[in-house]
Amino acid sequence: MSALPEAYGAALERAMVHATNWLASVPTRSVRPQSDADQVAASILPRLPDEPADAAAVVDELAALAEPGLMAIQSGRFYGWVMGGTLPAAMAADWLVSAWDQNAGLRFATPAAAAIEESAADWLLDLLHLPATSDVGFTTGATTANFVGLAAGRQHLMDEAGWDLEGLGLSGAPRITVFAGRERHAAVDLALRYLGLGTCVPVDADREGRILPDALDDAMGEQPGPAIVCLQAGNLHSGAFDPMADSIGVARDRGAWVHVDGAFGLWAAASPKLRERLAGVELADSWATDAHKTLNVPYDCGLAIVARPEAMRRAFSVHTSYLIATDAGPGDPFEKVPEMSRRARGIPVWAALRQLGRNGVIDMVERLAENARALADGLSSIPGVEVLNDVVFTQVSVSFGSDERTRRITQRLMAEGAVWMSGSSWQGRNILRISVSNWSTDDADVAASVEAVRRAVEQEPEA
């Protein structure tokens, strides 16, 4: 009889103990790590031992090493960098994904993973009111999701221009001009760099960071030819949404491919209350978002959605003698992402959606927005605190007067550890940026967070 179950049993039992102990500590522990990376590194064996170690003992050692350096990202009082927590079903599904160890690239080789991911994709398109015939790729995150959407756009425009991108590459190719708002996320610039498309043409935006359609029209008129327009669903600092219908109309008039970076904000399309802010978003050609942000599945899981599957698959598919490709309509998973081998990261997405149901997703998205509004209202009641943005979704940007005082208060908050809110710079000012992304954040967390800011403000009087 195989010794396989016995080989895993003790290690998995210890992992279960450490995981449940960690989760039990999250609601009450300091949000910030207690050790920095250098301190954690100092406690790790400097040289790999010669002899093997017991698997269960390795798990115990790993847990002890990591614990002081863990950030409580799952805490309802963590508001840094638009990071969500993890829903129970999604976490458990992720454990199964590791146990099943499926390479989710081919429908033929791993049919269960492919079918479950395809189901999750269908549910997502329906929830977000995007074209049902779109392809969905499960990527590592929003940066690679943006990469996929923009790569599909590059492929489509080159095909339209009669240029053999696969055979000839970019040297000598028609130039594609990319237009994006001045307050685009850096992930868009990274994706353009990876694709060899160069720097985008920055288009003026309003005080909330929304691209101005008239400015877009003027900019495109000055640089005709093949073009991609990048729009934003959820500004990094204000949470604001670009005016989709008007901006897409401008792009369509000039034959441009329209890509939407909706890392966290695209989820607003699921809500009947919030959807109007994204009116017209379904008219774009591609969209990028994160499941490990607003949907609260484990890292890593981005979503690349492309309305023109043929462009996506031409950009990413490959044909070799050893791959048993499918002729089915959904295509193979590896045709939709820049990976031939990957874990079945769409399975936790399926589990999260199945746990929540349509109404649960809507409720969670709307509750995140309501919590952001409650935080903004509570902070506005503290003397010396200024909320700088219109709180339209899940982002709150705050100033405490001078840049120096804002920095000091931000540092004091992080040092105390009762909450985690990250610093940033927006429109020439230092700010405290709050991103409400965790499904578990409740009224008590909001109240405790406001009080933490109040304590920091009182300890840093104005000059």
Automatic annotation (TrEMBL):
Q: Which residues carry this modification: N6-(pyridoxal phosphate)lysine?
A: K293
Cofactors required: pyridoxal 5'-phosphate
The alphabetized list of GO BP terms reads:
carboxylic acid metabolic process
Q: List, alphabetically, the Pfam families matched.
A: Pyridoxal_deC
Molecular function GO terms recorded: aromatic-L-amino-acid decarboxylase activity; pyridoxal phosphate binding
- Keywords for the protein's UniProt record, in alphabetical order: Decarboxylase, Lyase, Pyridoxal phosphate
Which Gene3D superfamilies does this UniProt record tie to the protein? Answer: Aspartate Aminotransferase, domain 1, Type I PLP-dependent aspartate aminotransferase-like (Major domain)
Q: Which family does it belong to?
A: Belongs to the group II decarboxylase family.
Protein name per its UniProtKB record: Pyridoxal-dependent decarboxylase
Instruction: Tell me which species this is from.
Output: Paenarthrobacter ureafaciens
The organism that produces this protein has a lineage beginning with: Bacteria, Bacillati, Actinomycetota, Actinomycetes, Micrococcales
